[in-house]
Amino acid sequence: MAFRMPLRRIALARPNVPAVRAFHATPRAFVKVGDELPKIELLEESASNKVNLAEEFQVANGYIIGVPGAFTGTCSSQHLPSYINHPRLKEAGQIFVVAVNDPFVMKAWHAQLDPAEQTGIRFLSDPTAEFVKALDLHWEGGVAIFGGPRSKRFALKIEDGKVAKTHIEPDDTGANVSMAEKVLS
């Protein structure tokens, strides 16, 4: 007669955590009219020059322009030039361009697009995407293209430190609803 080992059930250790679903029926909670800006420091021209847009927009109204990346085709040839060349630019108030890039890339891009610095547009770096994530204006599709999360293409009108109007591209990177002709008119 052969020796038989009794069968034992081995319980695998499983944390008592509810399952997380990847699908949900509720739409994403993009920034909306009436929201305050997050108090997050962005960088301008260097790692030591910090800018907090929540504080900047307590002083004057204006716009935040979000772009997927500095030196990218649509951003450099269409989106930003639509603001730089717009006849009502000077009436728009403060304008900040935000991209998930390092401050040195943003400084070089600013120098290329506005070499005489006549527009008054300021170029800010959101190197970890913390600012655009706080607004829920990031997309993960940038991993394959850009190596990490990126900003959606958007324009936000800011009045009295709060979002007064949103212009968010529905496909994340297109250039339609956030162009200066539609935003500044």
Automatic annotation (TrEMBL):
The active site is at 75 (cysteine sulfenic acid (-soh) intermediate). Pfam families: Redoxin (PF08534). GO terms for biological process: cell redox homeostasis; cellular response to oxidative stress; hydrogen peroxide catabolic process. GO terms for molecular function: thioredoxin peroxidase activity. The keyword Cell inner membrane does not apply. GO terms for cellular component: cytosol; mitochondrion; peroxisome. It comes from the Eukaryota. PANTHER family: PEROXIREDOXIN, PEROXISOMAL MEMBRANE ASSOCIATED PROTEIN 20. Belongs to the peroxiredoxin family. Prx5 subfamily. This is Redoxin domain-containing protein. It comes from Stachybotrys chlorohalonatus (strain IBT 40285).
